[in-house]
Amino acid sequence: MKLSNSFPHDSAKKHVSGQSIYIDDMQINAQLLHGKVVYSKQAHAKITAIDFSEAKKLKGVHAILTYKDIPGENQMGPVIHDEPCLAENEVICVGQAIVLIAAESEEIALEAEKLIQISYEPLEAILDLRTAIEKNALLGAPRTMQRGDVVSGLKNSKHIIKGELETGAQEHWYLETHICLSIPGEGNEMTAYSGTQHPSETQAIISEVLGIPKNEVVVEIRRMGGAFGGKETQANWLAAWSSLLARATKRPVKLRLFRDDDQIMTGKRHPYLIDYVVGFDNNGKISALNVTQNADGGCVTDLSFAILERAMLHADNAYFIPDILVTGKAYKTNLPSNTAFRGFGGPQGVAGIESIMDKIARFLKKDAAEVRKINFYGIDKDNITHYGQEVELNRIHLIYDQLMESSDYKNRRLAINEFNAKNEFYKKGLAMTPVKFGISFTTTFLNQAGSLVHVYTDGTVLVNHGGTEMGQGLNTKITQIAALELGIDFDKIKVNATNTSKVANTSATAASAGTDLNGMAVKVAIDSIKKNLSDFLASHFNKENSDEKSKAENIIFQNNEIIDSKNSDRKIAFAQAAQLGYLNQIHLSANGFYKTPNIGWDKATGWGKPFNYYAYGMCVSEVLLDTLTGFYKNLRTDILHDCGDSINDGLDIGQVEGAYIQGVGWCTTEECKRNAKGELLNHSPDTYKIPSVQDIPMDFRTSLLQNVPNPNAIRKSKAVAEPPFMHGLATWLAIKDAVSAVRNHEFEPEFKIPATNEVILLSIEKLRK
Amino acid sequence: MQDKITYILDGKIETIEFNQENKPTNTVLNYLRKTPCHKGVKEGCAEGDCGACTVVLTELNQDNKLLYKAIDSCLVFLPMLQGKQLITVENLASKNGDEENLHPVQDALVKANGSQCGFCTPGIVMSMFSLYKNENNPSKERVEDSLTGNLCRCTGYKPIIEATIQSCVNNGADHFSTDEKKIAEMLLEIKNSSESIEIKTENQQYFQPLTKIEALNLKEKYVDAIVTNGATDVALRVTKRHELLTQIIDLSHVQELKKNVISEYLIKFGAGTSLEDVKQISQKELPALHDLLAVFGSKQIREIGTIGGNIGSSSPISDTLPLLMVYNAEIKLQDAKSDRIVNMNDYVITYRQTAKKPNELITKIIIPRPNPKAQIKFYKISKRKDLDISTASAAFLLLLNGNLVEEIKIAYGGMAAVTKRVIKAENFLIGKPWDRNIIEQAMEIIGAEFTPLSDARSGAEFRTIVSKNLLLKFWNETQI
Prior knowledge:
CATH class of the largest domain in chain A: Alpha Beta
Number of helices of chain A: 19
Shape of chain B: globular
Largest sheet of chain B: 5 strands, mixed
Strand order of the largest sheet of chain A: 3-5-1-12-9-10-11-20
Number of strands of chain A: 29
Distance between the termini of chain A: 62 Å
Mean pLDDT of chain A: 97
CATH class of the largest domain in chain B: Alpha Beta
Radius of gyration of chain B: 23 Å
CATH architecture of the largest domain in chain B: 2-Layer Sandwich
CATH architecture of the largest domain in chain A: 2-Layer Sandwich
Radius of gyration of chain A: 28 Å
CATH topology of the largest domain in chain A: Aldehyde Oxidoreductase, domain 4
Structural class of chain A: alpha+beta
Low-confidence stretches of chain A: none
Oligomer: heterodimer
CATH superfamily of the largest domain in chain A: Aldehyde oxidase/xanthine dehydrogenase, molybdopterin binding domain
Low-confidence stretches of chain B: none
Number of domains of chain B: 3
Helix content of chain A: 25-40%
Number of domains of chain A: 3
Strand order of the largest sheet of chain B: 2-1-5-3-4
Number of strands of chain B: 22
Strand content of chain A: 15-25%
Structural class of chain B: alpha+beta
C-alpha cells in the first residue's frame, strides 16, 4: 500500500503556538549558570599571555577555564584528532576558543569577557584558498578517481575547453544558533541537552574531554531549530565546553552562541576552486574530462575528506564521461574549519560539471538542455559511473521528458530570444539542470541504525531511534511508518527525544539517510513485537475457540485491531491485545537494528558501490535581469523531483522547495567576505543575506515524480533532504544565460558562485568592453 | 511623573518596575522570555533582521480604535510598552475549557506545511496575525510585504505565503475582536492615568516625555542623552555591542511629533511619524518616497522606526537622505527656546556630523510638493533587494523643457562619507538635450566624482559602475 499522505509535521501545532521546547526554552532551576566562550581575534598567532585575574574577581563569575583545566584529552576532532578543544599556545583561526567562562547571567559573563586580556604574537597566516594552493598547504594526501585514459581521451577530442570555477563559502544560518545545556549528576555523570545532529559522537567527545567513560554521559536532543549539517560535528564544541564548565562548577551550565559569534566561530560550506579540461565533439558529447577539485578545508580536518570524496563522486552528476580523471585536494587555511552543509560536497562537484555543460553549449551555440540530454547516463548502456557503480533505475530521461514538456521549455526559449532582441537593458535567461545524487554514507560502516520501541498496556507506543529532528520531519515519517506497520492510529504513537541511553552507537542524522536508516530500524523492532503478539494471539484465539485454526503467520495488524486474516471473526483491539499480552508475560518492547545491505567500495582504488541507490531530479528556471543594476527576478521555476513512493508528499515537497531556495541563496546573495586579518565581514544577517520571502520564484511549481517506487528503501520511498539543493544551479545558470545575452551569447561571461549583483555587473561590464 | 510602566499582557493590566536587574534598556524579547516566560518568542539574531522575535503591539488610534502592529521585540526597550497591549504567539489560540482552538492563521500554517524546524514560526505567525487583523483578502504583494521581515531557512516560503492568503479572509474576526471593547477600555484607563516617565536606576536614566516641550526641556538639560523613538538603531548598541546606555530620552509617546500636514504646497511629517505611516501617506503624495520605503527594512522595522530617527542617524548609507535632498526638503530643528529651518542639502556636514546642535531635536520634515511635471526616482542597490542596507543608492529629479534639461538634481548615498549631490553632473546636464550620448558623458562625471569604499557589502569598482548605471537607468525610465 502506498502511504502518500500529507500529515502535517508532528510538531506543527506546537510550532505555531510557541509550545515547542527548544534547548534554550527548557525550565531549569535557579542554579543554572551561563557560559561564554572567549575566542581568538587572530588568524594565526602564538598566545603569549592570558590574564583573567580581574575577570575572576567579578561578582557572579563561577569559573574561568583554559586548556589547563581540561581533565581529559584536549581534543574534539571528530575523525582525526587535530582539533584542540581549547587553544594551547597557538591559535590557528579567528574564532578559535581559548577561554571558557561560567557566570550567573549572560550579562556578567560578557562583563568578565571584557576583563580578560589575551596577548598574541602574530604568525604568518593563509587566509584564502588560492594562497593555500600556491603554498601547497595540503590537509592530507590528494585523491583520485578515474576511468579510461584521460590523456588520450582529450587528445582525440574534437574540441577542448579549459576553465576554472570558483564556489564560495555558505553560512548555514539555522535560525537557532548553537546551544548546549549540561547538567552534572552524581559522581562522574553528565547529561547534555545538545543541539546536535550526532548525539553519539557528542557523547564520545564529552567523554574524551572530561576523561570519563561513555556510560557516564547521556546526550539528548528533542529538536533543533535547523541544522543543515552545521550541527553534525561542530555541535560537539558547545557540548564539550558547557560540560567542562558544568564539571568545574558542579552546576548546570547553558552555553548558547550569539548570532555573530556563531557566524564568526563556526565553519561554512567549503569554498572550492575547480580546474578542468574537457574534450567533446561537435554535438557536445563529452569524450574526456580531467578535473581537479581544490577545497578550502579551514584550519583542521573535521569532515573535509569525506566532503571532498562526495564532491569527487559527483563530478559526473548525471552524465556518462568515458575517459575521466577526478583529482581531489583539501587545503589547510587559517579559517574556521569548514564543515558539513546540505549536499556535503555534492553541490560543488555538480556545479563543476554543470558549469562545463553550460560552456560547451555556448561554445557550440547550442541549447544547453540539448547538450545535457545527449550526455545523460544511458538506461542499458553507458551507465557505469567513474567509480564503477551501475546507475540503476535511471529516472533522468523520464524526468527530462516530463519536465521539458510541462515547463514548456522550447517555446519559452524562443520567447526569451525575442524579448532579448528587443530589450537593451533587461535580459531574460533560462536554464535546465539535472541532479543525480548518491544515497548512503560513503564511509560504509556508518550505514547502520538502531531503535527501541515500547508498546504500553494502554495500546500507546513510544518509539526511540537514533535520528535527530531538525525540522526535516523525520519524526513525522517515523510516526507514519510505526502507525502503518502496527496498523494503529497516528495519535497512538509518540516519538521520544533522541537519547544516547535509549539507542546507542548511532550515526549522524546526515547524508539524507535519516528516514532510510532509522525508519527501517524502527520497522525491524516493530516486526519483532508483532511476532511476539502474533504468536501469542494465535494461541489465544485457538484456546478461546478450542481449535488450531489460527496461525501466527495469518495474524494481521490493521484499523487498530489485530486480526486473524483467515478467520476474520477472530480479532482483538490493539490496546486490549497489549493488556492481554502483558498479563500473559509477552514482551512488548523490542530493539531494532538495520544496516544498508549490498554496498561497499574500495576507497583506495575509488571503485565499487558506495551508494544504495540514486535520487534524481531536474529544475528549469527563468530569470529577468536588470543589466544596469545586477538585480534579477526569479520569474518562474519548475522542479520535478524523485522521492520514490513518497511517505509524506507535504513534507517531501517542503524539503524540495526549501533545499532549492537554500541552493539559490548559495548561488546568489550569500557571500562570506574576509578582511586582510582573516576576520569575517558578513557575521550577521545585516550583511549576510539568505533568501527572503521576496526572493522566491514569482511562479514556483514543484512536483514529485509519480509511480516510481524505490525497491531499496523503507516503504519504497527515497531520501530527499540534500539532492534538491542542487536545483539552485538552474537559477544560477539562468542568470548567466541572461548575462550572456548582453552580447548575444557570443562570448563566455565570467561567472562564479555566488553570483551576487556585484559579480553579475562586473561580468556584464567586461562583456560590454 | 511615574517610574514604572503599565501595559496589557495576557489580557491583564501589568506593571513593570525597573532596577539594576531589570534595566529600562532591557528589550521586550529578553523580558518576555525571562519574566512572564513567554518562551515562544525566539531570538534569532537580536538585530531585527530575522523576525523570530515578532510580537504584536496594539494601541489606540485617535478614534480610540485598536491598531495591531507587528514589531521586532528584540529592538524595543521595555518602557516603550507603556500604555499598549502586547500580544505574543502564546495568546493566539483561544481556549474553550481544556480545549485549545488554533487561531485561523495558525491553523492555516499547520495545514499548509508552513513550519519545518519551527524556530522562525512564532514570528511568522505573529506577522500573519497582524495582517489578518488589518487587511481582508490581501494581495500576494501585501502578503509578501508583511512577511519580508521574517526569515525562514527551511521552507522556501511558498507554503507560508499560501497559508497567509488562505487565512486572511475573515475581516479580522477572532477572539481578540470579541475582547476589543474591553481592551480599548483598559487602554483608555491606562492612558488617562499615565504621566511622563522618568526611570532612574543606579547607573541609568530613562525619560519618556509626553509633550514636545517636556522633551525639549529634557534635551536642554541632558544634552548628551541619546534620543530615540523606535530604537531600531539605538537598540543595537545594547543587543550587539552590549553597551550600557546611561541617559535616554524616548520620544515614542510624544503625540505632537506624530502629526502630519498635507497641504497644497507642502507635506509636513512630524519627526516621530513611523516610516510605515510615511509610506502610506506618500503612496499618493510622493510616489518616489513610497517606492523607497517599499524596500526599506521590513514592516516590523517601519512600524516603529521613524522618519526623524532615520534623518537623525545621518548615515552615509541612509536611504531617505538622498531623496530628501533632491526633494529640496527642509527640517525643523528645535531647542527649548527657539526653532530654525535647515535645508536637507545643508544638514549633513561630514561623516555622521550634522547641523543639528546637541540641545536640539528634529521636530518636522517639510517636503515642498514637487512640480507635477518633474520626474523623480529613487534607486537602491543592495545585495538582497529587500530588508537590506544600501550598497549604494541614488535619487534623481528631472524637469524637461521639450527635450532640454531645465532642472536636474542628482544625489547619491553609499558612495562617500556623506550622502551627496553631484553638482558637477547637474550643471553639465542643465540646458542640454536629454540624450543617450549626453547621459554617457554625465556618467563619466559621476564616476570621477566619487572614490567609494570596499566593504562587507561590495567592492569599490561595483559601486562606481552601478552609480554611473543608475543615471542611465533613470534616463531609460524617463523615455516615453
